[in-house]
Amino acid sequence: MSEEFLKVAHAAREAAAELAPLPRAPKDRALRAIADALAAQAAQIVEANAKDVERAREQGTSEAMIDRLRLDVKRVEAIAEAVRQVADLPDPVGEVLRGSTLPNGLELRQLRVPLGVIGIIYEGRPNVTVDAAALCLKSGNAVLLRGSSSAYDSNTELVRIMQEALEGTEVPSGAVQLVPGQTRESVKELMRARGLVDVLIPRGGASLINSVVEESTVPVIETGVGNCHVYVDAEADLDLALDILVNSKAQRPSVCNAAETFLVHAGVAAEFLPKALARLAEEGVTVHGDERVAAHPGVVAATEDDFYAEYLSLDIAAAVVDSLEDAVAHIRKYGSGHTDAIVTRSQRAARRFVALVDSAAVAVNASTRFTDGGEFGFGAEIGISTQKLHARGPMGLPELTSTKWIYTGEGHLRTSEGTVISACQGGN
Amino acid sequence: MSEEFLKVAHAAREAAAELAPLPRAPKDRALRAIADALAAQAAQIVEANAKDVERAREQGTSEAMIDRLRLDVKRVEAIAEAVRQVADLPDPVGEVLRGSTLPNGLELRQLRVPLGVIGIIYEGRPNVTVDAAALCLKSGNAVLLRGSSSAYDSNTELVRIMQEALEGTEVPSGAVQLVPGQTRESVKELMRARGLVDVLIPRGGASLINSVVEESTVPVIETGVGNCHVYVDAEADLDLALDILVNSKAQRPSVCNAAETFLVHAGVAAEFLPKALARLAEEGVTVHGDERVAAHPGVVAATEDDFYAEYLSLDIAAAVVDSLEDAVAHIRKYGSGHTDAIVTRSQRAARRFVALVDSAAVAVNASTRFTDGGEFGFGAEIGISTQKLHARGPMGLPELTSTKWIYTGEGHLRTSEGTVISACQGGN
């Protein structure tokens, strides 16, 4: 590993050890200092960001992408405000999750503790740099940030300001680090930093996430790939189904909890499909249908790839299924385990769908768009896990923690006959 | 991947989907059927085991290892009884972990669900084959077992009997699978089976665990490497410390929660060390000491490797430290994050040690030997996790589960202005 990388990784590790035992108040003070510093230095941030924007323009980046990249004073103020909101959230660290006095008198407690050093690899907007840092600090973790090279100047400036702001606080400034270099090599170093980094959270497209999972020796939490389904059951209220389908697909097509496929029971397909196709067409949505759907006008014939696709656009795949079980089998085969919805009046169908669909979230008679840390009341979200270990679904502050067992005795010894208390206790 | 491997992996995956929604009663019936079948066919198991024992003897295996491998009717009956005990444990699946009615009326629930397919790679005794299968089935998971090739005949027979026993039950017999082949290749296939296997749990020595972590694309839970420390504080009751040290080291030296290093504060070293060295010598323990410890007679000079070592034998490393903070720094550097103990009368020292030591378990005035699923009251244990993600410390049945979010509405749609309920609700 490069010396540059080792330097920031070790700095983060040392900071993590100092930060972990801090209670809530000094962490909140540090977050407010960061928010104030960001707001006060908005002009410098906008100036650094202008370099990223200029470079993007030279490289022929689309205006939509440039708008995602661009910061102005108002956006910087919103970023600072989001940090203040994180400061207002409860601290997960120190929460007693389980506890009892064991039969032998040992007092046993399981506490939430920080994970240590969290590596975040992300594409997209520079606000993630600050959001992720704030969530990590609040949960007592140091953070190694590896953002998009397209936002490197903005990220460098944001991290510099955060580090300077921490210098006047009890939180060590080393707790926020930008991974040096903009090369692919720096991502690799992060992925191989087992022992220095406790967990990696990749945030971005499927190819980024797959390459991290494939190559990383650091434990990974996969986030955000969403091939979400809406299943319209034989016993669905079809008008309700129509609203839920359209909302799930079209309310904000670019996000991971937008629907990418709908499945309709054969028993109601003849009635539902013409209405659904008309409504989706009104919304500008292109439907990629299997044979039975494509028999209707205006539908593009789907290939198998369409059923695997996370379009993130005004496209949706569609198929007719002969049973709830076939819908579940389709979702198990093609889905990404993010969010899948059923629309039905039947209690039995809802119960079966919920039991059989193996996804982070299952929605009944509701839009898939509600799978979100904000909607769930978490106050903030670092991403949506689509894996089964550690965290599944929207990840808030508790998902950025581990646990520690503590047991306290008075000379408890274990023997083959059971616990013995040492006879040697002096006065305590 | 070999066809043979894919066949068992797909069979496990299908079985997992059938098994996951089953409630407790049919799972318990299946476990009792397994226990009965094992007890009834003890003679066949002993016969298959005799082949393993004979092969081991031909290969010049030590008698101690052969004893670990050997099964007799009494041992088989104990294995069957352990399965009945798992049946008696509460079912973690379906537990509601969090739940609320959101401000918009959505009913939100987070439920425990099975992980899916669990791969277990293990060395050692054939009883693990049955123990691991029972814990996985109880928690609604299918299991792919890859035991030691030295126990292949025993494991094959045990799995055959378990599968046959399941055939008369509601649990699909495919839920218990032995990974075919005894080659290193079959371990590799398990490690690359992302999408087919949800989690891998390696149980064995450090080299096995490291190679799995290094090569696996399937998420891994590391278990069981224990370089546990006993720190004797400046304010320790020294007689109590002596008992705790000797118990932690010598009560059962071959297990992961046995102490492998002790650290003594410089302020009490002159008084403590002569007593400790005498007691450890009585117990047959060799002490590998740093310079200050090795100044005493009968101590072997320690190399740096000694402080990293998991001896699992009647050896212990020892060092004198100048402060609690130095003890913590030593543990952070050399420890494995399993269990570390402090002996002290000081409330402040205990509080600091607990806060600063970053391990799965921290013991205060108690032997390290208590870090154990049985002692913690879990009823059963699949291993002791020394990693921070998902599970940390002794893993019982809840640690073999994931979670699923379920939200139920009545036509809930998300808009930029907040939640809207579809106007189209018909009669339910």
Describe this structure in words.
Two copies of one chain form a homodimer. Chain A folds into two domains: 3-223 and 382-405, Aldehyde Dehydrogenase, Chain A, domain 1; 228-370, Aldehyde Dehydrogenase, Chain A, domain 2. In chain A, 42% of the residues lie in helices and 22% in strands. The first copy, chain A, has helices at residues 3-19, 24-40, 42-58, 63-69, 73-88, 127-138, 152-167, 184-191, 206-215, 238-250, 266-282, 291-294, 304-308, 324-334, 347-356, and strands spanning 96-101, 107-114, 117-122, 142-146, 176-178, 199-203, 228-232, 259-265, 286-289, 300-301, 315-321, 339-343, 361-366, 383-385, 393-395, 401-415, 418-421. The two termini of chain A are 50 Å apart. At the A-B interface, strand 2, helix 10, helix 15, strand 13 and strand 16 of A face strand 2, helix 10, helix 15, strand 13 and strand 16 of B. Chains A, B: Belongs to the gamma-glutamyl phosphate reductase family. Chains A, B: It is found in: Cytoplasm. Chains A, B: This is Gamma-glutamyl phosphate reductase. Chains A, B: Its EC number is 1.2.1.41.
Largest interface, and how many residues on either side? A-B, 79 and 79 residues
Quickly give the structural class of chain A.
alpha/beta
Arrangement of strands in the largest sheet of chain A: 10-9-11-8-7-12-13
Number of H- or I-type helical stretches of chain A = 15
Main sheet overview of chain A: 7 strands, parallel
- Give the C-level CATH assignment of the largest domain in chain A: Alpha Beta
State the end-to-end CA separation of chain A: 50 Å
Look up the CATH topology of the largest domain in chain A.
Answer: Aldehyde Dehydrogenase, Chain A, domain 1
How many domains of chain A? The number is 2
Please estimate the helix content of chain A: 40-55%
Low-confidence stretches of chain A: none
Return Rg of chain A in Å.
25 Å
Q: What global shape of chain A is seen?
A: globular
